[in-house]
Amino acid sequence: MRVSSELKNSCQKGLKSELLVAKYFRDQGYELISQRLRTPFAEIDLVMRNSCEVLLVEVKSLSNYDWLVFRVGLRQKIRLKRALIYIQTKFNLPVRFHLAAVTKGEEIEILADFLS
Asked: What pTM value is reported for the model?
């Protein structure tokens, strides 16, 4: 089965966005623990950590920030919340969840504590 070029480009764009967001958080003192971590509930794009907390990040590639919060539907929010609870049991640190958007111009917008 051949992967369509549109799907392949979408995957490449998603990976590039994840790397940009990982660098953004590394520059703020976080360490990348895992990328595209699969839990029993959902896949987490980035798992970052510093000495004080663990940060889970869902990354979205957008042409602009309009409608960003609607890019994560209710069912996905429920799955991500369950994944957050699951991951909280694995660390002895507070766990937070952020939504990161990356535009075509590689601008990054962070919605902190997205699932709170």
From this structure: 0.86
